[in-house]
Amino acid sequence: MEEESIISLFGKVVKGDEAAFRLLFETYSRRLFHVAYYYLNSRELAEEAILDVFTVIWQKRETLSHVKEPERYLYISVKNQALHYLRRGYVQEKDPFSLYEIELIPDSDTPEKSLMDEEYQALVQQAIDSLPPKCREVFRLVLSDKLKNREIADILGISEKTVNIHIAKAYERIAEFVNRRYKEGGIK
Known about the structure:
The protein is an all-alpha fold. It has helices spanning about 5-15, 20-40, 45-60, 70-85, 110-130, 135-145, 150-155, 160-185. The chain has two domains: about 5-85, Rna Polymerase Sigma Factor, Chain: A, CATH 1.10.1740; about 110-185, Arc Repressor Mutant, subunit A (Orthogonal Bundle), CATH 1.10.10.10. Helix 5 (about 110-130) packs across helix 8 (about 160-185).
């Protein structure tokens, strides 16, 4: 969603537009879920954190007219809610759930090519899963959520330079991982 349209949508929410609120929730809940899950490692708690944030936004909507960057506000609110859960000790056992699955669109029409595409996609997913947690999260926020480096730095509490380093490191490690597996015969 473009920055101008999120500002317009958020403005409608502030004025009490329920349809705009639903659209805001539908547009951002999945992206925000990734941030909450990063901190909480629990689907249930991450979903709860998202619902809490949106509930507060709706309840206090009239007081939010000062928000100039709604997208940033949403991400930071979710991060803060997740950290609040952690401080309160609402931590559960880690879910065996991967937020980092990617979907490559195959351009094949043969079963053999389709199988190779699936194997390659699985290999790239393994490479992403092998990244250190902070590096993996930065990589996902850049690729999946299309956030700017400054926004990622704000959300994760790191510098923009560190974000750039994580991105470069992610690409380098993924390429090394895939190349190593090809040489070992990981993909036929």
